[in-house]
Amino acid sequence: MKIIDYITEEKINLSTNLSKIQNFCASKLRETPLPKSQSETWRISNKQKLSSLLEYQYDLNSYQPNIPSYLTSKKAIKINVGNANQFNLKENDWQIKELNTKEINFLIEEKIINNNSEPTWTNLLNHSLVSEENLLGIKISGENIPPLQIFCNSKINHFNAKTLILLIDEKTTVDLLQVNLGDKNSSLSLTTYVWLEKEASLNHGVISLGNGTSNLLNSLDVVQKIGSNYKLSTIQMQYDFARFEVNINQSEGGGHTTIRGMQVSNDNEQIGTYTKVVFNGPKGYLDQLNKSLANDKSHSIFDGSIIVPKNAQKTDAAQLSRNLLLSNTAKIDTKPQLEIIADDVKCKHGATITQLNEDELFYMRSRGLTFAEASKLQLKSYYKEIIDSIPVLEEGLELLNHLIN
Amino acid sequence: MQEKMTGKEPLLEIKNIFASTEDLTILKGVDITIQPGEIHAIMGRNGCGKSTLSKIIAGHPAYKINQGSITFKGKNIKSLEPEERAKSGIFLGFQYPIEIPGVSNLEFLRVATNARRKFLKQQELDTFEFEDLVKEKLELVKMDYAFLNRSINQGFSGGEKKRNEILQMALLNPEIAILDETDSGLDIDALRIVASGIKKIANKENGIILITHYQRLLDEIKPDFVHVMANGQIIKTGDCKLALELEKNGYEWTDQLSQDS
Question: Going from the N-terminus, what domains does chain B have, and what CATH number goes with each?
Fold first, then answer.
């Protein structure tokens, strides 16, 4: 595995400013180069596909992504992670400011080095590799902020690594669409950290679209302060191997979190979403829906946990995993979990796995729709709920047609 | 038995049909012939095979024809898929219209209408043209346009679902329509609206099969023939007086007839 050899054989060209973090992460990886197979969240991951993901040449250059029209918004401010230019966008009532290296180092060190919990393998890999050019930190504050789009991509035959840091200031409301694109035969490692200050609000869309043979390791870590509102809407598909790890920490409780996620796997792909929502204070709220759709011989995984410790009284959390099997050879693993210590909470979770409904199909066929047209209409309805919740997107219908066809 | 009209090619001819589902034989030799312009009513106890007959004609994949033939406009349709039958002009109004969450009623109706129009070699309708057509047809069943923006049948009352079926029938302009207990679950006003819609769609070129338990629908729509079904067979055929006789004597009378036959 070229990437692991690159790290373990100490070939990394350490970035002077990031050397402490890189050294820390690389030394951890030298001890444990690959995720432990007994680890619960890696247990059913396809190891062969993970090896293939790590087989590409590491590339610290950045390339302008080729963005399809249905993923671009005319009104949004567009930022490409990897463009080295410093920026500071400012209007009378708002500001989007790029963080400097010192601020970024401080934030990542807090997450990775000075943290009681062990960093994830996905983040260790990312921070061992990311160069300063591929690291973007921004602080957003004010009112009436224009919609934002942030792009990350991986280049054909290469392994690219990017890190994004977002600080949303108190009482600031932001609509952001993150678009991750993968060329064929490429791998992208992306780690995103979000800090939502008191009463801040982020409507966050994440669309990850590969090219069939692309790979993705996507880690999203969100800290919510009291009174903050975080809404995450995601779609991931067209990857040979994709893994989306989402960690949300309502650090003081009293936050509002909504998650709408969807993953689609075809051919022999393996696509997985692993979410963990922790309530570290009372009166937190979560409404989570994850949809999976598995076709051909693909494998779809959802592993979602909700942690409600003793100090998280009056938590109100609901999690639902809805899955649709489109072939007899596809496989879906879903594991919604609750870990509750507090005794005055309202928590529920559930999972359904179904196939396309035969009565519904016959009803539509009896009106002249072919089997394929009827299936497509049913699938459209399955996608639509998630696409409708994605912010900033102006051509939702065009995206829907692209995904269906 | 049913007396055939002469000089016309039958629209639908069902001959000695035996049909089953999951190895259970339900239809045991059914014969019906529908000529253009005719309205037939089929009555009978629950479980006698009325709905199975309607599903067999529409091509439901869960039912198997073991013997006999179904000919539509002179062509054997036994091997046609449900959508091919629908496009060629066979319509089934469901006893329990299916709710399909998330699928827009409007989009579904447009795709279905265009599938039929394409078969008829008519120009397919774009969104705006379809909107004009559907508004005109909504009048027939006194439905509000807002229903079209909902998911198919989701959140509809029993009456609204049945009106939606008749709306579909009006849009698809079928040559044979089988309406399976379209009157069930309707209050008096809704029944009149639905019946009035059906009467406006009925013409000299098409044929209608009304499956019903009650005379009250037949008070609104006068059938040319009434068939009584029992135990997977048609045991008696007559004119509209037969429905009145059935209403008067109840199904015990048909049980006796069944034993006699």
Answer: 12-260 (3.40.50.300)
Cβ(A134)–Cβ(A158) under 8 Å? no
A382 neighbourhood in chain B, CB within 8 Å: 102
Contact A47, A37 (CB under 8 A): yes
ipTM, two decimals, is 0.94
Distance CA B95, CA A56 (A): 59
Cα gap B165→B154, rounded to integer Å: 13
- Per the CB < 8 Å rule, is A363 touching B97? yes
Query: What pLDDT, on the 0 to 100 scale, is given for residue A161?
Result: 95
Q: What is the mean pLDDT of chain B?
A: 92
Question: Quick one: pLDDT at residue A11?
Answer: 64
Per-residue pLDDT reduced to its tens digit, A299-347: 999 999 999 999 999 999 999 999 988 888 999 999 999 999 999 999 9
Give B64 to chain A, closest Cα distance, Å. Answer: 15
Which positions in chain A touch B60 (Cβ < 8 Å)?
A: 362, 366
* Domain boundaries along the sequence of chain A: 2-252, 357-405
Contacts of B151 in chain A (CB under 8 A): 381
Structure tokens given for A165: 């840091």
Between CA A45 and CA B1 the distance in angstroms is 68
Lookup result for tokens 């209050």: B187
Chain A touched by B96 (CB under 8 Å): no
Contact B177, B116 (CB under 8 A): no
Nearest by CB: B86 against A358, A360, A367: A367
Residues on chain B touching A352 (C-beta within 8 angstroms): none
Residue with the bigger pLDDT between A4 and B134: it is: B134
